[in-house]
Amino acid sequence: MAAPRAATASAKQVTRRNFAEAVRELGAQLESCDYVAVAAQKTGAPTGWRRALPVDTAETAYLKAKLAAESFQPLQIAVCPFLLRKSSPSTLVAYP
C-alpha cells in the first residue's frame, strides 16, 4: 500500500479588490462540488493605542476611532468546496 501524499494548498485571500472575482469562482466551485466545509471566527480588536485618551483633541479621538474601525475585522469566513474523485472515491480534491 502506498503512503498517503501530503496535501499542499494555500488559502485564497479575498479582499475588496478581488471580492467579485472570488465570489464568481466560488459559485462555480459550489455548483460542481460534493461537500462544502464552512468555518467562521470572530477576529480582530482595536489595540490600546487607538483608544481615545482624555488628553486627545476631538480630531485626534475621531482619527483614532476611524483607524480602529477601518482595521477591525469582525468576522472571518472560510469556505472550502470538496470534490470526490470518481476514479478513486477515497481521494478528495479541495478548492481552498
Automatic annotation (TrEMBL):
Cofactor(s) annotated in UniProt: a divalent metal cation
GO molecular function terms noted in the UniProt entry: 3'-5'-RNA exonuclease activity; RNA binding
Pfam family, one: CAF1
Protein name: Poly(A)-specific ribonuclease PARN-like isoform X2
InterPro entries attached to this UniProt entry: CAF1_poly(A)_ribonucleases, RNase_CAF1, RNaseH-like_sf, RNaseH_sf
Family per record: Belongs to the CAF1 family.
PANTHER family on file: POLY A -SPECIFIC RIBONUCLEASE/TARGET OF EGR1, MEMBER 1, POLY(A)-SPECIFIC RIBONUCLEASE PARN-LIKE
SUPFAM superfamilies per record: Ribonuclease H-like (SSF53098)
Native species: Panicum miliaceum (Proso millet)
Domain of life: Eukaryota
